[in-house]
Amino acid sequence: MRGVIVMLLAGVLAAGGCAGAGDPGNVVAPTGAAGQRDSTPAGDGSGPGDGTDGGSGPRAGLVELRVAVDESLAQAFVQVEQGFEAQHPNIEVVLAYGEGLSLADRIAGGEPADVFVTDDPFAARGARLNAEPVEVGRVSLVPVRPGPGDEFVTFVRDGDGRRILIDSGLLRP
Question: What's the pTM?
Answer without folding.
Answer: 0.65
